Amino acid sequence: MDVESKRYQLLDCIQRRAENLFLTRQLQCAEAVMAVLNQGLGGELAPELAVRLASALPEGLGRRGCLCGALNGGALALGLFIGRNGPGYRNGTTVRKAVGELYDQFKTAYKATCCRVLTKSLVYGSDQHFRHCARMTGQTARMAAAIVLDHKPELLESADWAYLRQKDRRMTAEVKKLIGVFGR
Fold first, then answer.
1. Over the stretch 45-82, which tens digit does the pLDDT of each residue have?
2. Distance (Å, rounded) from C-alpha 75 to C-alpha 91?
3. How many alpha carbons fall within 13 Å on the CB side of residue 119?
4. CA atoms within 13 A on the CB side of 161
5. SS3 67
6. Among candidates 137, 144, 37, which has minimal Cα distance to 99?
7. Are 78 and 98 in contact (CB under 8 A)?
């Protein structure tokens, strides 16, 4: 398989995995984007830590309805993979440009970046709401992953394909959540 085909296949898997984690209500938008990119592309965070870092971002920053959680999670993931490693204003230029690119792609695709604007015509918690946000979550994970791969193409070879190809059913997700709660 050539590099472009493999890249396309990886981006598809990332998109589907993030959507699945959201639709099965295992993770919220920001958490799904961050968790999938972290684990799928070999980020350095423990899976639980990736979720914890992103847990304050869904539903427009603490449910205030501002910046979309998926976009927030994508920005966080870009920081993980291409962010600066120490002090100094100039060494953050790459990640700031990358986040700007993600923001612009998201705004072009959805015409807004504010959670409450993106979901204003939907009943909160309805199936339609979940499907709508799942699509944005998956697409944003794909956009962020493409930007990461533009900067670090070597990650294509080390992707966790087994994790990315997982697809949970709602019942399986419920069992996983119960085990997580009672398995401690």
1. 999 999 999 999 988 777 777 899 999 999 999 999 99
2. 17
3. 29
4. 8
5. strand
6. 144
7. yes
